[in-house]
């Protein structure tokens, strides 16, 4: 297995495809691979495209001290899809999101139970390098947070530089990521200007560029548009649609229209439980749970 | 519902991921090491402070066991010649001078702050607060110099007249001594005005404009607005600032040692008599005490006592500020609750009246004309007191520039001190022996003092600034919310309250007396004393700056797969750098002006000596030696050295301010 002749996972250290814009993905025809899973569960089903990466949650519970914020969630984030997470404030959707790249445990007293599998590998397994996991699972935050001491170029290359990835041409990768984030044309003439000098929407796309520059497998987005105006929001939403060709995306949002616009599937959480997950259209037109119905029709928020 | 449609991860993908994970080198193995190292450094504070207390305790034990604690602090027979040591007169002297300083200094400082924030024309504000900040940078030995050479002789007549006229008031009357409690308290008052005023100004600037405008909109005069909106809101800060001033007055050593006269037996019967404070007696007697173990133990006991008093004062100040803050918060919470209850249609409970913080209640009893008269009188007082604050400060600065500027020349800066102020004579002066009259006209300059100061302060800064910032990093990045973090923060606060003379004494008994490193006095030992003094200042100034670094930046970096130590090194520290530079430079500036710890540890050498393992001359020591000499040539040299020292310190402060401007986080 280690000597796979044609590695479909792009090794993190190869040159980026710099043909311009988002690299062309290679999974046009989904490969139907029958497979078994280690660990006893063996529901045989077709895998998604082989370049994509899946995240599977089994009974995930997240705690703040004794307070259980996420109460046992089973969910699969499919490869190359945008899964939108909706639910009222405090329903645990952000907590769940932060559990997936182990940011949750940065909070003192916080812990996670259950299994979170990235491509079938338990990211919470003892001995797993938490830092390496975060390189595979990137994150975009609620508010744009470019590093204030760095220029636009340095911001995008930050992940490469900090992780000492040397066999990649940083300038090429910066251009690739900025094009991927739809920001290249706006900033190409001032790459050495400070990142905090950009507008809010540009800053957020800069942060997305920073995230994709290290080519993670999965991108977690925690209400990425909540601090942006409608036009900037639209740009980021278009960007998310493009990014899903290369990344598996989990999008937490407060905005149901946004979930309807960009989500391939939508998951509804309520009081720490996953109520329902299904194709976005079904969730918004014909949900199976009455609580989902009430929420998407605006009966409570 | 998921399992029926779940896709199965490609096993190849899993193995490839495992492989990549195994191959990825993240540097996260360093994380626990960095955390442990920083925790260890923070623990060092505990070890240091514990050793400090134990050492002082052991060394002072003989005197406490001989007299008992109560007798030691109440008996007023401090007579080294008869080997009896009752520190009562010193305690009394400390309290008397500090009380005078507070009584005079606090009202003036508060008035100055009010004037600057509320009354002064915008153009004057920067000028007045700038002048006050300038004066905060003047080291205490310079205040002592000015008080001794100018203020005390000038005021003697006034004091005598006052004492004669008001002799019916207790503790006033009799013959006025040139050096006395009152003049000491007055100089202390001038010294604490900048700090009390600065803190008061800071809190007054935070009074919400809403409150002030609400008062003015109700028809309040300016003074009524100040009384109803500004003063209640900033009371906690004013008390806190005054307590800090008190702490400084209690521990002040050199200016007091110069001005108070040094009588140790018996409390003077008037505020115009000679006396001693705990701090001054340590400075004046420490060297002659080397020959008498009991005398030394008594001095250390005095140091311990001083430390205890400062600790109690600081604890009270902190308690008061916290209580005032929580009272404000409680009032706001009650108000919110009451509003919520009113929205639900509940009648407010009697007894829990809506008590918003400082609802303006302008007086309605007087006529408008009466109110206006009160307003203009009050404003006149505030402006007058501000003038009163600026007068001595302006005089001091004027003297410094004129007298000091007069003696500074190229050869003054580039030649070493010689003549009557030679090593032996100077050392004797510290011993309190008879003054040696200077004969020679050519006394030389202050080259060795300048270089020695740079050397001593430089060594201290090079060692302590990194340690202090590291401890602050531990407290912010790892210690927040942990018991150990809180404990270390408390210890740092305790350390902040230790008077510098006590640190000097501590280094004196641990390093100088035992002749560590061969020589008794050494430059590096002064660096140790200054370092101890700087450490809590560096930590305390770094803490808020590090906390200001937005949590989002740390999260962004962590989410990029950066190990925590690298997040600290590459994101947190660079973002905080300008603020850290500012804080450290201000700490260095503060240490550069310290006198007491230096004369205890570096000794005095007049010739140029670059070796930190031997005695070094420093500017503060040079000033202290020259000011207590009787020759006017030496006085002139003291002024020149004082101006040089102040310019040096101001340069540091200026660079610090420039660094602050570069700050990217507000």
TrEMBL record, chain A:
Residue intervals of the ABC transporter domain: 55-296
InterPro entries: AAA+_ATPase, ABC_transporter-like_ATP-bd, ABC_transporter-like_CS, P-loop_NTPase, PstB-like
Glycoprotein keyword on record: no
Superkingdom, taxonomy of origin: Bacteria
Gene Ontology MF term list: ATP binding; ATP hydrolysis activity; phosphate transmembrane transporter activity
Compositional bias per record (Polar residues), positions renumbered to this chain: 14-35
SMART domains (UniProt xref): AAA
Classification via CDD domains: ABC_PstB_phosphate_transporter (cd03260)
Organism (species): Patulibacter medicamentivorans
Keyword field contains Ribonucleoprotein: no
GO biological process: phosphate ion transmembrane transport
Name this protein carries in UniProt: Phosphate transport ATP-binding protein PstB (TC 3.A.1.7.1)
Pfam family name, one: ABC_tran
One term under GO cellular component: membrane
UniProt lineage: Bacteria, Bacillati, Actinomycetota, Thermoleophilia, Solirubrobacterales
Keyword annotations from UniProtKB, A to Z: ATP-binding, Nucleotide-binding, Translocase, Transport
UniProt region (Disordered), positions on chain: 1-51
UniProtKB/TrEMBL annotation, chain B:
GO cellular component, one term: plasma membrane
Compartments reported by the entry: Cell membrane
Single annotated GO MF: phosphate transmembrane transporter activity
UniProt superkingdom: Bacteria
Principal location class: membrane
A Gene Ontology biological process term: phosphate ion transmembrane transport
Matching InterPro entries: MetI-like (IPR000515), MetI-like_sf (IPR035906), Phosphate_PstA (IPR005672), Phosphate_PstC (IPR011864), Phosphate_Transport_Permease (IPR051124)
Start and end residues of each stretch annotated as Disordered: 339-358
Signal peptide start-end: none
Pfam families, per database record: BPD_transp_1
Keywords: Cell membrane, Membrane, Phosphate transport, Transmembrane, Transmembrane helix, Transport
Membrane topology: Multi-pass membrane protein
Residue intervals of the ABC transmembrane type-1 domain: 91-317, 450-656
Transmembrane spans: 33-54, 87-115, 127-152, 178-199, 249-268, 297-321, 381-402, 456-476, 488-514, 526-546, 567-589, 638-659
Protein role: Part of the binding-protein-dependent transport system for phosphate; probably responsible for the translocation of the substrate across the membrane.
Entry's family note: Belongs to the binding-protein-dependent transport system permease family. CysTW subfamily.
Protein name as annotated: Phosphate transport system permease protein PstC (TC 3.A.1.7.1)
Organism per entry: Patulibacter medicamentivorans
Lineage: Bacteria, Bacillati, Actinomycetota, Thermoleophilia, Solirubrobacterales
């Amino acid at each position: 297995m280690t000597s796979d002749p044609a590695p479909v996972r792009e090794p993190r250290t190869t040159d980026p495809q710099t043909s311009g814009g988002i690299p062309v993905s290679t999974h046009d025809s989904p490969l139907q691979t029958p497979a078994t899973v280690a660990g006893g569960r063996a529901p045989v089903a077709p895998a998604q495209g082989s370049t994509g990466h899946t995240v599977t949650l089994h009974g995930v519970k997240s705690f703040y001290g004794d307070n259980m914020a996420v109460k046992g969630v089973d969910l699969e984030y499919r490869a190359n899809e945008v899964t939108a997470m909706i639910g009222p404030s405090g329903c645990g959707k952000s907590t769940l999101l932060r559990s997936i790249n182990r940011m949750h445990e940065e909070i003192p007293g916080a812990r996670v139970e259950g299994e979170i599998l990235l491509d079938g590998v338990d990211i919470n397994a003892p001995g797993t390098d938490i830092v390496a996991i975060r390189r595979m699972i990137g994150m975009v935050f609620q508010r744009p947070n470019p590093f204030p001491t760095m220029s636009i170029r340095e911001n995008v290359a930050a992940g490469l530089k900090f992780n000492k990835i040397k066999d990649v041409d940083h300038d090429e990768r910066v251009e690739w990521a900025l094009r991927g984030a739809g920001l290249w044309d706006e900033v190409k003439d001032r790459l050495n200007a400070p990142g905090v000098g950009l507008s809010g929407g540009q800053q957020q796309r800069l942060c997305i560029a920073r995230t994709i520059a290290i080519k993670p497998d999965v991108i977690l987005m925690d209400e990425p548009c909540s601090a942006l105006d409608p036009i900037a929001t639209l740009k980021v939403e278009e960007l998310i649609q493009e990014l899903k060709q290369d990344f598996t995306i989990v999008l937490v949002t407060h905005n149901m229209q946004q979930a309807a616009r960009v989500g391939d599937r939508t998951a509804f959480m309520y009081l720490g439980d996953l109520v329902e997950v299904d194709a976005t259209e079904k969730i918004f037109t014909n949900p199976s749970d009455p609580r989902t119905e009430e929420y998407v029709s605006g009966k409570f928020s | 519902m998921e399992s029926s449609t779940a896709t199965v991860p490609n096993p190849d993908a899993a193995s490839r991921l495992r492989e990549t994970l195994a191959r990825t080198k993240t540097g996260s193995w360093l994380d626990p090491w960095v955390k442990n190292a920083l925790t260890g450094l923070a623990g060092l504070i505990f070890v240091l402070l514990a050793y400090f207390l134990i050492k002082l305790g052991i060394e002072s034990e003989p005197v406490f066991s001989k007299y008992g604690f109560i007798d030691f602090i109440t008996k007023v027979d401090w007579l080294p010649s008869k080997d009896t040591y009752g520190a009562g007169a010193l305690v009394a002297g400390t309290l008397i001078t500090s009380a005078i300083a507070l009584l005079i200094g606090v009202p003036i400082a508060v008035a100055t702050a009010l004037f600057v924030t509320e009354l002064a024309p915008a153009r004057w504000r920067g000028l007045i607060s700038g002048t006050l900040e300038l004066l905060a940078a003047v080291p205490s030995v310079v205040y002592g110099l000015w008080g001794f050479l100018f203020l005390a002789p000038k005021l003697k007549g006034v004091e005598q007249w006052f004492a004669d006229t008001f002799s019916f008031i207790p503790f006033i009357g009799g013959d006025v001594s040139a050096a006395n409690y009152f003049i000491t308290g007055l100089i202390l008052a001038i010294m604490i005005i900048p700090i009390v005023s600065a803190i008061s100004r800071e809190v007054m600037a935070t009074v919400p404009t809403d409150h002030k405008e609400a008062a003015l909109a109700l028809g309040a005069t300016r003074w009524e607005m100040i009384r109803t909106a500004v003063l209640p809101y900033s009371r906690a800060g004013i008390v806190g600032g005054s307590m800090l001033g008190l702490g400084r007055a209690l521990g002040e050593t050199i200016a007091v040692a110069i001005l108070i006269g040094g009588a140790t037996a018996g409390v003077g019967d008037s505020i115009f008599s000679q006396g001693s404070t705990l701090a001054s007696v340590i400075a004046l007697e420490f060297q002659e005490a080397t020959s008498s173990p009991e005398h030394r133990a008594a001095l250390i006991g005095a140091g311990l006592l001083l430390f205890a008093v400062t600790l109690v004062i600081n604890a009270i100040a902190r308690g008061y500020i916290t209580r005032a803050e929580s009272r404000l918060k409680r009032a706001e919470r009650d108000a919110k609750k009451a509003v919520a209850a009113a929205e639900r249609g509940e009648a407010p409970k009697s007894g829990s009246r809506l008590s918003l913080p400082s609802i303006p209640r302008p007086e309605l009893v007087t006529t408008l004309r009466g109110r206006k008269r009160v307003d203009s009188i009050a404003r006149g007082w505030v402006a007058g007191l501000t003038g009163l604050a600026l007068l001595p400060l302006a005089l001091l600065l004027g003297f410094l520039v004129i007298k000091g500027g007069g003696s500074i020349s190229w050869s003054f800066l580039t030649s070493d001190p010689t003549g009557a102020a030679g090593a032996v004579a100077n050392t004797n002066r510290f011993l309190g022996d008879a003054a040696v009259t200077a004969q020679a006209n050519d006394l030389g300059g202050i080259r060795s003092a300048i270089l020695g100061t740079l050397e001593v302060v430089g060594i201290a800064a090079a060692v302590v600034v990194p340690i202090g910032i590291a401890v602050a990093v531990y407290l912010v990045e790892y210690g927040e919310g942990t018991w150990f973090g809180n404990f270390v923060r408390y210890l740092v606060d305790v350390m902040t309250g230790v008077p510098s003379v006590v640190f000097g004494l501590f280094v004196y008994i641990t390093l100088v007396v035992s002749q560590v490193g061969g020589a008794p006095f050494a430059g590096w030992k002064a660096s140790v004393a200054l370092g101890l003094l700087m450490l809590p200042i560096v930590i305390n100034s770094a803490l808020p700056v590090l906390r200001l670094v937005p949590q989002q930046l740390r999260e962004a970096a962590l989410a990029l797969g950066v190990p925590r130590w690298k997040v600290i090194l590459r994101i947190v520290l660079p973002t905080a750098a300008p603020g850290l530079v500012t804080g450290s430079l201000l700490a260095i500036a503060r240490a550069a002006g310290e006198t007491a710890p230096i004369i205890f540890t570096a000794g005095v050498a007049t010739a140029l000596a670059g070796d930190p393992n031997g005695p070094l001359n420093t500017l503060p020591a040079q000033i202290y030696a020259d000011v207590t000499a009787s020759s006017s040539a030496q006085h002139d040299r003291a002024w020149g050295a004082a101006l040089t020292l102040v310019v040096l310190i101001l340069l540091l402060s200026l660079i610090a301010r420039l660094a602050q401007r570069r700050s990217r986080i507000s």
